[in-house]
Amino acid sequence: MERAVIYGLFLSDHEVLSAVETELVTLSAIMCQGWAAPTVWHLRGLRRMGVSERDVELVQRAIEAVATWAGRSVEGWPRVGDVTDVD
């Protein structure tokens, strides 16, 4: 899934989805699989694309709400406030 969908041609074609939209899809998929280190990388990526910390936090909350609804524990997931080296 990671190679074929997340980083595949569909998500790399910014005529289909913008770079920020692509990052939102990627972040959602990675967070819901519980991958901590890649989550931090992609949180940082959103911030580097100019998305505010507040907006990224709201995105995280939405992803966590869906994950919780699906029965997934979100305890200990990285937070956008923990991301360093944004600039």
Mean pLDDT: 86
Distance between the termini: 30 Å
Tell me the fraction of residues in β-strands, as a range. Answer: under 5%
List segments where confidence is low: pLDDT < 50 over at least 5 consecutive residues. none
Radius of gyration: 13 Å
Strand-and-helix sequence, N→C? HHHHH
Counting DSSP H or I runs of 4 or more residues, the number of helices is 5
Secondary-structure content class: mainly alpha
Global outline: globular
For the secondary structure, the number of strands is 0
Describe this structure in words.
With 87 residues, this protein is an all-alpha fold. It is built from five helices and no strands. The termini are far apart.
Provide keyphrases for this structure.
87 residues, mainly alpha, 5 helices, 61% helix, 0% strand, globular
Topology summary:
Elements (H helix, E strand, L loop, with lengths): L1 H5 L2 H4 L6 H14 L3 H13 L4 H17 L18
Helix pairs in contact: 3-4, 3-5
Give the gist of this structure.
With 87 residues, the protein is mainly α. The chain has five helices and no strands. Helix 3 crosses helix 5 (53-69).
